[in-house]
Design a protein that fits this description.
The structure is a homodimer. Chain A is α+β, with helices and mostly antiparallel strands. Chain A is 35% helix and 17% strand.
Chain lengths: 639, 639
C-alpha cells in the first residue's frame, strides 16, 4: 500500500507550546465557524453556506448566497472537525458533523454532481468556467474533507458522495475526445485526489490528478478558449500577472519561478509533489525542486510569508520583499507548509523542514489571535496603523485581526492545519524515522515508537525515549535545524558522535525499550540579515531565536520604530514570561533611538547624523503581535 | 489698478540655464502639441480636440472624442503660445493661434456656453455634473488662455469669448436663488477668474471667484446632492479620500491639511491666495498659510514633488513620503509653484521662494526629457525598473519618460510654465523690488530697472546692474535662499552690510545708473536629512547643491543602489561638465558599496555586517535623470 494508504501518520501530540493553540481550535474555532456556516453569528454577514445546500436539495426555497465557492466552507470545517476528533473526541460534535454531511449529501444530483452554485443557478452552465468559478476547487475541498472524515471516523458517507462527484467530474473533463481539456483555476483538487487515491487505491484518482497537473498551461490555453466561449473579459489582461495568476502561463514542468496567486501556487506545487512522488516522475520532481527553490530561496519572507503583493495576492519578482505592502496571506504560508511537507516525503532534507518550521511558528501562527477569535488574512512585517488607514495601497494590511471574513478562507485553513499538526512531526523513508518537528508527544513509526518531551521552541532540549524494543536496523534521524549552529547529542547519557546528512543527525544502532536520546540544540538569539539583493531589508536586521522570529511592537517600544537602531554586537537577554501573551520568551537588547532633539521642525535640513539615546528594546515573538491593541510593529530594524 | 491689471511682470529672461529648456518649448513642445491637437501625430491616439470644436460648430459631423475635459488642451496650448510670443515672436505661429481661436469661437452658443462635450452630447445635461465632468475646469483654462493671449498680443477675440462664457456660467451658478450653488470638482477657474478680473477690473469676476472658493465644502454638500440627482455612484465612497479628493470635505477656511488630489489642491489654494490678497481677507490669508504649511512642511518631497499616493493622485498623511510609490505629478509641482508665487504676492517671505525654486529646478523640470520630446507624469525619487514592470502598485512609476499621454495635462502645463518663467523672477511690494529667482535678464520694476547676470544654479554669483537712475526711496531686496548658509554682498565693489529680513537682504540706498551689486552665494554640496518623522528617509541622506537636488543613476553607479552607502563627512567634488546631459554640474563623493562577497546565496542568514568596498559615487541633477536609458535611480541614499 502506498503512503497515502496509511490512515494518517501515527503521532500523538501533547505539546506545551501547541496545546494552547489547539485548544482554541476546539474551544473557539470549530464552534464559532459552525455558527457562521449556519448564519447564526449576530454581527456578521450571513454565510448562506448550509442554506445553499438545503436550497439545492429542494428542502428550502431561495437563491444562492455568498461567493461562488461558498460550499468549500463546510468542507474545510468538516476537515478540521475530522482532524480534531482524532485528538479530542467529541460525540456531540461528531453527530453535528454527521448531520452536516447529510445536508451536503442531500444536494447531490443523480449523476453525482454537487456544487450548489450551479445546482441553484442552472446546471447547464456547469463546468463552463473552470478558470474563475472555483467548481473544481470546491470539489477538491470536498474530497479532502471526505478523506479526513473517513480516516478518522471510519465513516464512508461523505467519501462515497465525493467519489461519485469525482466520477461525475471525470466524465466531463479529461484527455478523451469529447471531454473538456480543462483544469482548475484554483488548484487543490490535485492534492485532494492524491489523498483520495491513498484511501481508494483506485488508479483513476491518480490519473485525474496527474491529468490536472500536466494539462495545466498547455497550448492552446484552455482558459483562453473558455473565456472566448463565454465572452468573458480577462480580468488580468493588463496586469503583469496575466495567466501567471493561475500558474497557467506554461506547462508546469517548464515553469521556473513561483508565480501568481500565492495560495494557488502553493496548492498546485503540493499536488505536483504528490503526483511526482507517487509516479516517481523524475522530471516532475525536478520541476517541484525548481519551484521550491524559487519560492523559498528568492521569494519568501523571513516569517515564512509568501506573496509580495496585494495585486493578485501574488508573487512579484526575485528578492522583491516589501515589508509594509506585503500580502503574505495566512493561507499561502499554510500552503507553503503543505508543499514543504510533501517535499520532505520526496526526499528527507532538512531544508524543507526548516521552511515548514519557519512558516508554522511565524507566518501561519500569526494569522490567529491568541484567543482564537480573530484572524489575519494579510501578515505584514512592518505596520504603521495610520498608513493602513490613510494609504489606499496599504489598506489590505490591517493593524488588528478581524473577526471573520466574507471570503473566509484563512480561519478554517488555520483550524484544519493546527488540528492536523501530527502530520508535520515525522516522516519515514528507507528504514529511517525522520523527526522533522520537535513537539511533545508520541511518534509510532513502523518498528519504532518514541516518546518526545520538550519545551520547544522556547528551549532547545529535546528528550526522546524509545518505547518498546525497535525493529532491527531501524535508524533514527533527528533534524538539526538550519538555525542551529551548535548542538550535542547523547544516547543513554553518553555523548554520541553522529554524522549529519542533509540536515539530519542519523543514529544507527539497535534501539531497546527505555533508551533515552537527549538532543541539545543551542538556542541563542541571533541577528538575521537578508540576502543583499533584498532591497527592503538593506541596512536592517531581524532577530530570531530558535525557529521563532521576533518583532518590535509599539506597546513595548513606543512609536516611530523607523528611528530605532540596533547594534548587532548586542547580546539579547532571554526571558521566559509565563504571563505575557500566553507565555512567551521575550528578548531584550540594547538599541539606539534617533531623536528629534536638535531638529527644528523643518521637513528637510542640512544636518549631521541625528542625536540618539540608548534604549532597551523589548522583542516579542512575531506570531504574537497585535494582541495588545493597535500600534506599530516591525520585524526588520535598522542596524 | 490692481496687481492683476498689470500686463505681466516686466521681465526679460536671457538665462544660460533656462534658455535651453525654453528653446525646446518653441522648437519641440508647441509644434508637437499642435500636431497632436490636430490628430496629426502618426503613432499616437487621436486627440479629437480641435475636431470636437468643429463638430460642435456644426462644421463637421461626428461624435465627441477624448476625455470630457479634452477642450482644455487647446486652451493650455494657446496659453503657452501666448507666453512664448512674448519672448519669441513668431508671426506664423500667431496666425495659427488666431485661427485656432476662431475654431473655438465658432462653437460658442448663442448664450455664451462653450464646452464641446455638452454641445455635442446634449446641452440639457450641462452644469449637471460639476463634480466630475470638468466643465468649470475647462472654462478656467479657457479664461487663462484668453487673458494671456490678450495680455501678450492685445487681441480681444478669445477674451470676449471667455467673458461671454463666464457670464453664461454666472447666470447658472451662484448664490442667488434659482441658481446652482455649485463649484468645480477640479479647481482652476478660481485663479483664472482672478486673472480675468485683473484685465477687466469687473467686480463680477472677483465675486464669482470668491463664490467658488467660499461655497466649496459647505453643508449640505453640493456634490452629494448632485450625485443623488444624477443617480451617480460615488467613486471615492470607500476610499480614505472621499470628498477630500475634491478638497470639499469642509469649507476651505476650516481646512487644516493639504488633502486629496494634489493638482486640484494646489490650484484651489492658488485661487484662494488670489482671492485673499485681492479682498485683503485676513481669515482666508490665514487659511492659505495653514494649507501652505501643511503642504510644504509635512507633505512635500525634497524635490518639490507633492502627492504621495497614486490612489487619487493624492496627499496621504503627515510625513508619509514614500520614494518608490510616490505620485508626484509634474502638474502638482507646477501647482505648488503657482501657489508659492501667490504666497509671495501675499507677503514677501523667502520661505515661499525657497519652495518655488525647489519645485522649479527639481520636480517640475524632471517632468521633461532634455530634448523636450518626452514627459513624466509621475516623478519618483527611487526607481527599480523591474519593480515598475512587475509590481502592479508601482506601475504608475515609469523608468523612462513617455511620448505623450491620453490625458495630456503635464506636457502643456510644463510648456506654459517654462514659457512664463518671467512671472517667477521678481515681485514688488511697498516700494521694494524683491528678486526671488536668480536668472539672467532684465527686471523692469516701477522706478528701478536691473540687469541680471549669473550662471545660477551652477554658480552662486549674481551680478546686478542698475540701468538708469532709480526712483527715490526704491529698495532692493535680494533673496538669500534657504539652502545658503554663507553669502556676501557688495555694492559698487564695496562690501555691504545689510539686514536679512524674512529671507531677503534688503538694500536701502539711492540707485544710480550703472550701480553694480554683487551677490555671492556660497554653494557647496550639502547632505540633506529629512525630518525624523519621515519613515522612508530614516537613515538616509540626499545631496543638494544650491537649489539643485542630486541623484544616483545606474548609468554611473551600477545597479542595486540600495547597497550603496555614503559617509556624510565626505566632501563632494564639484565638476562642470558641459557635454553631459546638456551641461550640468556633477558631484562625486566617496561611498561604500555593500557586496555579496561572503554571502553564500541564502535568502536569510545569521551574518555580520556585509562586506563593503569603497566606491566613487557620481551624482547628477535629479531633473536630468532618465536621459540615458532605463536604469535604477535613487535620491535618498543610505548613510
Amino acid at each position: 500500500m502506498n503512503h497515502y494508504g496509511k490512515p494518517l501518520t501515527d503521532v500523538t501530540l501533547n505539546d506545551r507550546f501547541w496545546n494552547r493553540f489547539r485548544e482554541t481550535v476546539v474551544r473557539e474555532g470549530i464552534p464559532y465557524q459552525w455558527k457562521a456556516l449556519n448564519d447564526a453569528v449576530e454581527d456578521a454577514e450571513p454565510s448562506h453556506c448550509l442554506r445553499n445546500f438545503r436550497v439545492a436539495a429542494g428542502k428550502e426555497s431561495g437563491t444562492f448566497g455568498g461567493f461562488v465557492f461558498q460550499d468549500s466552507d463546510i468542507y474545510k470545517w468538516l476537515e478540521g472537525v475530522a482532524f480534531s476528533l482524532r485528538w479530542h473526541p467529541d460525540a456531540q460534535l461528531e453527530a453535528i458533523a454527521d448531520e452536516a454531511i447529510e445536508t451536503v449529501a442531500a444536494a447531490q444530483q443523480a449523476d453525482g454532481y454537487l456544487d450548489t452554485y450551479y445546482i441553484i443557478n442552472g446546471l447547464d452552465r456547469r463546468f463552463t468556467n473552470l478558470k474563475d468559478n472555483h467548481e473544481l476547487y470546491v470539489a477538491g475541498h470536498m474530497v479532502e474533507a471526505a478523506v479526513a472524515y473517513f480516516q478518522v471516523t471510519g465513516k464512508r458517507r461523505l467519501l462515497d458522495v465525493a467519489i461519485r462527484y469525482v466520477d461525475c467530474i471525470a466524465s466531463a473533463i479529461g484527455p478523451e475526445e469529447g471531454k473538456l481539456h480543462g483544469y482548475p483555476g484554483h488548484p487543490v483538487i490535485e492534492m485532494a485526489l492524491m489523498r483520495l487515491y491513498g484511501v481508494t487505491g483506485d488508479e483513476k484518482h491518480l490519473r485525474l490528478a496527474k491529468y490536472f497537473v500536466d494539462e495545466r498551461g498547455q497550448s492552446p490555453l484552455y482558459f483562453e478558449a473558455e473565456d472566448a466561449r463565454n465572452g468573458n473579459h480577462f480580468y488580468w489582461k493588463n496586469s503583469p500577472l496575466r495567466y501567471r495568476y493561475y500558474q497557467a502561463q506554461q506547462p508546469v514542468r517548464e515553469q521556473k519561478d513561483a508565480e501568481g496567486h500565492a495560495v494557488r501556487a502553493m496548492y498546485l506545487y503540493s499536488g505536483m509533489a504528490d503526483v511526482a512522488r507517487e509516479t516517481d516522475d523524475a522530471e516532475l520532481i525536478r520541476a517541484c525542486k525548481t519551484l521550491w527553490e524559487s519560492a523559498t530561496r528568492r521569494r519568501m519572507y523571513v516569517t515564512g510569508a509568501v506573496g509580495s503583493s496585494e495585486h493578485g495576492e501574488a508573487f512579484t519578482f526575485d528578492y522583491d520583499l516589501p515589508n509594509d505592502t506585503v500580502y503574505g496571506e495566512t493561507c499561502a504560508s499554510i500552503g507553503l507548509a503543505f508543499f514543504a511537507r510533501r517535499m520532505l516525503l520526496l526526499e528527507p532534507k532538512g531544508e524543507y523542514a526548516d521552511v515548514m518550521e519557519r512558516a508554522l511558528y511565524n507566518g501561519i501562527l500569526s494569522g490567529m489571535q491568541l484567543d482564537g477569535k480573530r484572524f489575519f488574512y494579510v501578515n505584514p512585517l512592518e505596520v504603521v496603523p495610520e498608513a493602513c488607514e490613510m494609504d489606499a495601497h496599504k489598506r489590505h494590511v490591517k493593524p488588528e485581526r478581524q473577526k471573520w471574513f466574507g471570503c473566509a478562507c484563512c480561519p478554517p485553513n488555520l483550524i484544519r492545519t493546527l488540528a492536523s499538526l501530527e502530520e508535520y512531526v515525522a516522516t519515514e523513508a528507507a528504514g529511517t524515522v525522520y523527526v522533522n518537528l520537535y513537539a511533545g508527544g508520541e511518534i509510532r513509526a513502523e518498528g519504532l515508537t518514541l516518546k518526545v518531551e520538550t519545551n520547544y521552541p522556547w528551549e532547545g532540549d529535546v528528550k526522546l525515549t524509545v518505547l518498546g524494543d525497535a525493529a532491527e536496523g531501524k535508524k533514527l534521524a533527528l533534524r538539526i535545524p538550519g538555525w542551529c549552529r551548535e548542538w550535542s547529542l547523547a544516547v543513554n547519557d553518553e555523548a554520541a558522535e553522529v554524522e549529519v546528512k542533509d540536515g539530519y543527525a542519523v543514529i544507527d544502532r539497535p534501539w531497546r525499550d527505555g533508551d533515552g536520546i537527549a538532543l541539545a540544540l543551542s538556542m541563542p538569539a541571533r541577528w538575521v540579515r537578508a540576502n543583499p539583493r533584498v532591497r527592503e531589508d538593506a541596512g536592517k536586521v531581524a532577530l530570531q531565536r530558535g525557529p521563532v522570529v521576533y518583532c518590535l511592537e509599539e506597546a513595548d517600544n513606543g512609536s516611530a520604530l523607523h528611528n530605532v537602531r540596533v547594534g548587532c554586537a548586542a547580546e539579547a537577554e532571554i526571558c521566559w514570561e509565563p504571563d505575557t501573551l500566553g507565555g512567551v520568551v521575550t528578548l531584550t537588547t540594547d538599541g539606539l533611538r534617533e531623536t528629534e532633539d536638535g531638529w527644528d521642525g523643518a521637513l528637510y535640513d542640512f544636518a549631521d547624523a541625528p542625536d540618539t539615546r540608548p534604549v532597551k528594546l523589548r522583542w516579542i515573538p512575531y506570531y504574537a503581535w497585535a494582541n495588545r491593541g493597535v500600534g506599530e510593529m516591525r520585524v526588520w530594524v535598522r542596524n
